[in-house]
């Protein structure tokens, strides 16, 4: 099995900083849970997104979906995603644990099953898993 592309330490810090910055632009008046995502492409592009809530909850947008869409717009079919970082700010204004939701796990794996997904778990623990590890039984057809 091919090894996942790992973001170098400095690259990971920059990717997390981009995700953190994006989270500050989130529109989250209902949950007050702001999420940012930053996707790194093989071409060196960094594409960010933030969550955008809507009073009709199901039609909100996740940060990961927004970052993937931005990358796809910029790079089109040549997009080769290496990594995505997710950063969340809770209603208390502090960094909060946040892994991608199920729908975003499917979106991420369709970009690249070997892409590295970085997010914070409980107590500030950094998790770095491949998309395949995060969603081992993804939907395909």
TrEMBL record:
Any one Gene Ontology BP term: nucleobase-containing small molecule metabolic process
E.C. number: 3.5.4.5
Alphabetic keyword roster: Hydrolase, Metal-binding, Zinc
UniProt cross-references to Pfam families, sorted A to Z: dCMP_cyt_deam_1 (PF00383)
Top EC class, one word: hydrolase
Binding of substrate, residues: 51-57
Domain CMP/dCMP-type deaminase: 10-141
One function term, GO molecular function aspect: cytidine deaminase activity
Protein's UniProt keywords contain Ribosomal protein: no
PROSITE patterns found in the cross-reference section: CYT_DCMP_DEAMINASES_1 (PS00903), CYT_DCMP_DEAMINASES_2 (PS51747)
Role: This enzyme scavenges exogenous and endogenous cytidine and 2'-deoxycytidine for UMP synthesis.
Entry's family note: Belongs to the cytidine and deoxycytidylate deaminase family.
UniProt protein name: Cytidine deaminase
